[in-house]
What we know:
The protein is mainly β. It has helices spanning 59-68, 142-153, and strands at 5-12, 17-21, 24-39, 44-58, 74-88, 92-106. It comes from Streptomyces capoamus. InterPro entries: NA-bd_OB-fold, Primosome_PriB/ssb. Pfam families: SSB.
Amino acid sequence: MNETIVCVVGNVATQPAYRELASGPSARFRLAVTARYWDREKSAWTDGHTNFFTVWANRQLAVNVAACVEVGQPVVVQGRLKVRTEVREGQQQWASADIDAVAIGHDLSRGTAAFQRAVKPEAPPTAARPEPSWETPGPADPRDDEAARQQERRPVAVT
Length: 159
């Protein structure tokens, strides 16, 4: 598959929007990524252009994002980049850069976090089923196997 996988470091720009859909939980938020560079003339770090991405999370990742990601937090997002363009009002072109997230985490180079494993809901107990026998029953003597094949070839009288 020719997908564009990206790893983006930035700040959460909008509160994650969480929704329960028929296909499962989904969450999205905007991520601001600003390039910084060293300005020799000013002898200081200077902010460059800011890019905004819409980050989409699904299933358990969406649940975890809704529980712990907040506006302003530095995060690292890895996922598939999807760029969409549309024409609006006949002439204006509009572009959107979305990331279908595979993993999202806090940027620990800029702060600390305490990891807490997500608790999965317990499944109702099911009745224990016996393990199936995977062995094919067959004769121990290869001559018995030949006799069985000849028995199958005999014509059957129909009355």
